[in-house]
Amino acid sequence: MTAVAVTVAGSDSGGGAGIQADLKTFGALGVYGASVITALTAQNTKGVAAIHDVPPEFIEAQFDAVFTDLAVDAVKVGMLSRRETIETVVACLDRTGQTNVVVDPVMIATSGARLLADDAVDALKHMLIPRARVITPNLLEAAALLGRPVATDENAMRAQAERFLLYGAKAVLIKGGHGQGPEAVDLLVERDTVTRFAAPRIATKNTHGTGCTLSSAVAAGLAKGYGLVEATRRAKDYVTAAIAAADKLGIGEANGPIHHFHRWWPASATPTE
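Structure (tokenized):
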């Protein structure tokens, strides 16, 4: 059977993040992707101009349409900008019995735009995180959700990840892409183990959609039946290669997207007649 993953997230009209990045990632990794759109954003590489939230009843209708027909193997949850949206998604996850749930707690866009309302933070922590197989906060998101300073070393990263376990998450992948040093280090923290994933830090401004892509790549791995550590390892490798190839795209005037299809669009390719 074909592996199926569903992304529950906001749409990025510029194509670099959100639903668009998730579906590109699923396809690139050999997984059939479906979607439940929670918000529409008017954005490009320069920033987010507007957000239009999808009504809760239509989010529920999308869930029903997808989950009553497709045999879903994993779910990635991304941008849920309002408390009402989180409550609706949590109810739908419970009703459909999903356990392979990857939660990317999207709070701030690459451009700096805030994507999560203040009154939604508590719902995210106490309602959504307990449903997660793994959550994937970056350093800024982890600090904001916990009310702590941004972690500056791996010991602090681990300590913050362990605090998220107290909210009910089964595992936490805390991402060090916003850190310093020659390596970008992510830590997968579970109840009894910590797994370190490191890759050379790549000098590029074209990192739009990195967090969305990593979380959806983990979901793709889980959908294909890999364990969490192996799914994360494969996701890290995929995202690192996509960042390394990002400058070959030349999309937009500001923070461009990473290259989801770097394996199929070689740099030397030229149009043919």
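Strands lie at 4-12, 32-44, 47-53, 74-77, 101-103, 134-135, 171-175, 183-190, 194-200. Residues 171 and 190 are 5 Å apart (CA to CA).
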